[in-house]
Amino acid sequence: MNRHSLNKMIITAMCTALCVILPLAFHAIPAGGKLFSPIHIPVLLCGLACGMQYGAICGVLGPLISSFITGMPAMGSLPPMILECVTYGFLAGLLIKVIRTRYSFINLYSSLIAAMIGGRVVAGIAKALYFSPGITIELWFTTYFAVSLPGIFLQLILIPPIVYALMRLKLIPKAGCTSL
């Protein structure tokens, strides 16, 4: 096993643990879970830092372990949450490898934003088809975008500097860029 694979496994384990810890902290704030979407932060981070397979693993294990240990997310919302998080982790990891501009901040933010939108779309479709038939576009937009706007901003502010720090520490390779 090479050093980068070991680093990716360790980062994935830490992100999965954060999927349990961060929601506990944010749920101390009234409506903190809905406003800040804390479980999304480590899943997106894992995908960007470690790649699509590790991001997808974190997207499954994070919500599942959190639900069993803390009851959050509740069992009724666990399946769409897992689909959403798997999509976040997978797309973030895929897109950071595929999007190739000259500047890493464009690669990183483009990958992050596209993964954030993709996960919300997949969760909305899953809810509409399987988990909450009859969900309207307005309800989906309100639930996944308007209410969680503080979390979206938090993710855009927190995640890129953490990814850059991991790159600078050489814990993960630079993400297909020629300059910062």
Plain-language structure description:
The protein is mainly alpha-helical and 180 residues long. It has a single domain (3-24, 37-168), classed as Arp2/3 complex 21 kDa subunit ARPC3 (Orthogonal Bundle), CATH 1.10.1760.20. 77% of the residues lie in helices and 0% in strands. The protein has 8 helices and no strands. It has helices at 3-26, 32-36, 40-50, 52-70, 78-98, 104-131, 137-146, 149-168. Helix 4 (52-70) packs antiparallel against helix 5 (78-98) and helix 5 (78-98) runs antiparallel to helix 6 (104-131). The chain is globular.
Fold topology:
Elements: H1 3-26, H2 32-36, H3 40-50, H4 52-70, H5 78-98, H6 104-131, H7 137-146, H8 149-168
Share of helical residues: over 70%
Distance between the termini: 29 Å
Largest sheet: none
Shape: globular
**Which stretches of 5+ consecutive residues score pLDDT under 50?**
none
- One letter per element, helices H and strands E, the order comes to HHHHHHHH
- When the domains are counted, the total is 1
**What integer is the average pLDDT?**
91
Beta fraction: under 5%
CATH architecture: Orthogonal Bundle
Enumerate how many helices there are, as a single number: 8
Based on helices, strands and strand pairing, what is the structural class? mainly alpha
- Total number of beta strands: 0
| CATH class call | Mainly Alpha
CATH fold-type name: Arp2/3 complex 21 kDa subunit ARPC3
Spatial extent as radius of gyration: 16 Å
Descriptive terms for the model:
Arp2/3 complex 21 kDa subunit ARPC3, mainly alpha, 8 helices
